[in-house]
C-alpha cells in the first residue's frame, strides 16, 4: 500500500502540491462553516483545526440527523460525527478530490437555505 502511495505522489505534483491542495480544500470547507451567520459551527479553535477531519455542528441540533440523511441521498456518506461528540465530521484526506469538497459546500448552502 505504501508503495502505491509513493508511486502516486509524483503524479500529483509531490508533497508540496498535495499540501497546497489540502489547504485549499480545508479553507473552502472551514470558510463555508465560519461564514454562514451561525447556522453551522466548528467546535475547534481556528489555530488548532485539522487539515484532514473537519468537525461541525448545526445551530439547530435537531436538524443534524436530517443533514446526514439528506447528504447520504447525494452520495456523501460517513458525515455523522462521533457518537460521544455528535454533529458531523467531514474527512477530507489526500484522496478526497476538490470536487467532493465543493459538492459538500454546495449541499451545505442548499440545506441552510431550506432550513434557516
TrEMBL record:
Keywords: Amino-acid biosynthesis, Aminotransferase, Pyridoxal phosphate, Serine biosynthesis, Transferase. Its cofactor is pyridoxal 5'-phosphate. It is an enzyme of class 2 (transferase). Its EC number is 2.6.1.52. The keyword Transferase applies. SUPFAM superfamilies: PLP-dependent transferases. GO terms for cellular component: chloroplast stroma. It catalyses: O-phospho-L-serine + 2-oxoglutarate = 3-phosphooxypyruvate + L-glutamate; 4-(phosphooxy)-L-threonine + 2-oxoglutarate = (R)-3-hydroxy-2-oxo-4-phosphooxybutanoate + L-glutamate. One of its GO terms (biological process) is L-serine biosynthetic process. Pathway: Amino-acid biosynthesis; L-serine biosynthesis; L-serine from 3-phospho-D-glycerate: step 2/3. Belongs to the class-V pyridoxal-phosphate-dependent aminotransferase family. SerC subfamily. This is phosphoserine transaminase.
